[in-house]
Design goal:
The protein is an alpha+beta fold. 22% of the residues lie in helices and 25% in strands. One of its GO terms (molecular function) is double-stranded DNA 3'-5' DNA exonuclease activity.
């Protein structure tokens, strides 16, 4: 089973930069998108009839938003955390027979860290939510989580220490999440792989020189680790300041851990 997650930084703009072509070529069973930046009716994507679309729009126009395109029909869909709605459109949860899929766009602490307290409180609620799901069945989490967890996850760790996305507090929240029973799939498979990033500033030559951050993730419940086949990123795919991240997982092992 192939899953893809991509912060498109405005889906309408990304469509004009090759989104549809990549979508078709990827052949993903589930394709998750963050930061759609649109409202209902502002875009029409002509896709293979095998996909069903689910959207969580932000109330604020041109802001945030998530979407999931899936070939697999979910048992249920939930929009938000505690309630079946949240104003920034940051979370979509799809329940399947053998697992939950959570597509998330984590709040940014902002450059001046003015939203750090909000971010940290949100992280606590998000972690509790994932633990509740995990108690029922395994969880696959994907999206822009707006944090480089370890120094290996960004190019200039020393210069960025304490900056938004690399504060001690944000990194500690990721550590706490993993410690509750989740696995960072890329680091699980490639613990020492450096220079592997998913986001680059729009400043000149930054992406060409690969001065980036790894802030987009696939996490899974720890008991799904044996089912992992591969995890990575399509760094050459343009259209956004983020690149798509990819997960290949053995669906049979999700459904039956004893399967060979």
């Amino acid at each position: 089973m192939k899953l893809i997650s991509w912060n498109v930084n405005g889906l309408r703009a990304c469509v004009n930069k090759g989104f549809n072509e990549y979508f078709v070529e990827s052949g993903a069973d589930i394709f998750c998108v963050q930061e759609t930046k649109l409202q209902d009716g502002q875009i029409s994507l002509e896709q293979d009839e095998g996909y069903t679309q689910y959207w969580n729009y932000a109330q604020k126009k041109g802001y945030s938003g998530t979407a999931v395109f899936t070939r697999m029909k979910p048992l249920s869909v939930r929009y938000g955390l505690e309630e079946d709605h949240e104003p920034e459109g940051r979370i979509l949860t799809l329940e399947f027979d053998a697992f939950y899929l959570v597509n998330v766009y984590t709040p940014n602490a902002r450059r001046d860290l003015s939203r750090l307290d909000f971010r940290l409180e949100w992280e606590d609620r998000f972690r509790s939510y994932l633990q509740e799901l995990d108690a029922v069945k395994p969880v696959i989490i994907c999206g822009d989580m707006n944090v480089a967890h370890e120094e290996i996850d960004l190019k200039n760790a020393k210069a960025n220490r304490g900056n938004s996305g690399f504060t001690f507090e944000e990194r500690e929240k990721m550590t706490q999440l993993l410690d509750t029973g989740f696995v960072d799939t890329f680091r699980y498979l490639y613990p020492e792989k450096a220079d592997a990033y998913t986001w680059w500033s729009y400043m000149p030559k930054v992406r060409e020189r690969n001065v980036g951050w790894r802030i987009d993730y696939f996490l899974v419940s720890a008991r799904l680790a044996p089912a992992l086949r591969d995890a990575g990123m399509d760094c050459d795919v343009l259209g956004s300041d983020h690149c798509p991240v990819v997960l290949d997982i053995n669906e049979l092992l999700i459904q039956d851990p004893s399967a060979k």
